[in-house]
Amino acid sequence: xxxxxxxxxxxxxxxxxxxxxxxxxxxxxxxxxxxxxxxxxxxxxxxxxxxxxxxxxxxxxxxxxxxxxxxxxxxxxxxxxxxxxxxxxxxxxxxxxxxxxxxxxxxxxxxxxxxxxxxxxxxxxxxxxxxxxxxxxxxxxxxxxxxxxxxxxxxxxxxxxxxxxxxxxxxxxxxxxxxxxxxxxxxxxxxxxxxxxxxxxxxxxxxxxxxxxxxxxxxxxxxxxxxxxxxxxxxxxxxxxxxxxxxxxxxxxxxxxxxxxxxxxxxxxxxxxxxxxxxxxxxxxxxxxxxxxxxxxxxxxxxxxxxxxxxxxxxxxxxxxxxxxxxxxxxxxxxxxxxxxxxxxxxxxxxxxxxxxxxxxxxxxxxxxxxxxxxxxxxxxxxxxxxxxxxxxxxxxxxxxxxxxxxxxxxxxxxxxxxxxxxxxxxxxxxxxxxxxxxxxxxxxxxxxxxxxxxxxxxxxxxxxxxxxxxxxxxxxxxxxxxxxxxxxxxxxxxxxxxxxxx
Length: 503
Ligand code: SF4
Hints:
The protein is α/β, with parallel strands linked by helices. Among the domains are: 167 residues, Alpha-Beta Barrel (TIM Barrel), CATH 3.20.20.30; 143 residues, no CATH class. 41% of the residues lie in helices and 11% in strands. The protein is built from 17 helices and 10 strands. Helix 5 links the parallel strand 4 and strand 5. The protein is globular. The structure holds iron/sulfur cluster.
């Protein structure tokens, strides 16, 4: 049965496994992956394997290479497709290639921040965010892409991609969590077909996503992430060195205790995964996505067999899967009897009208100068268009830039989004230049790229909008990608020209 058929078949519990290629066109690591895939293809219980793309931000063999070999074995492949290393044109080009080659199941991600490469750290591309990438792929599936004003009908043979997305309920602060779900709404609107969760070890958190989807009538199959860390990775996750992945103090202590056994705790870690697998099935997940470093197919067989043996008693396993930091938030009230959540949201804090002077001042300026009913709208429009006519466009651009640099740390992109993002600049504020919501990497409200140094841009946006009672607006809308034609131009002039239909 194909991966897609299995995923949308309510009677099927779809199992997939994550493969992580490393550097090199061939070698031990790639051979190990192919061997595992060969065994999985013969076994038949895994409905697909996913192949990462430059996992952790490190360069590695690209997913389509092993993907095609594995598809030839008769095992479906999910190719990770991330935004970190390629611009929108390269994305389109690559996708045409994958469509032609028959690699049509994707997991669309923002991607990890690029790490050390040839002679240094590479440029983080992030030309599109994951919502915009989904929109691009949805347009490709319809056989035309919008965007180039000179090509009215940019039509081609429609592609047929299945588009998976990631979401993390494993966020410590409510602001981070609510923003994860807000972005999920945008992903669904942009064409997401299915979800794979972030990895975690807390049944209540896993159930939270299902309750949220039900409450908001979002009907997408969800695969729960069953991650089996080795000791080294558990240590990194516990220290917070792998963005978005949390291993609590209690779980880490447990893993260290287990490591004293002859097999260094391997069997115990596999059994924990089997328990989570059984719980996910019991909770009503469409399936599970298994992963972990250095696993063999025999390890996977053990996990799958032990999970089946525990399926009927999954509720008894819930106390063994309750690893969440004490200060970590939940979205729903606890049900002490079941150990899960009640379908009752925890009361959201009432918006507190904040005295954020920068927000209120910026909002006043926007309403007064850039809204057609604003007092100085006509005067501002005439001044900007007049300066252009008089050949002083450059002076206007510099004037605008200097003001915005002082107030917003402007990066002179010319495609200003201040008014859409609570008067915070995404070009200087977000390390990945995301325009439709956060990536999954923040921890405790800190940016994945600058932990303990810079707050996540989206936590700041949420705080400002929540204070105005506007937090729900983050679920809707679509911010198009930055238009690089406007780079180092006056966004005020572009705005008024558009208003006057002079572009
Ligand atoms: S969005 Fe662009 S124009 Fe607006 S403040 Fe940021 S860099 Fe400057």
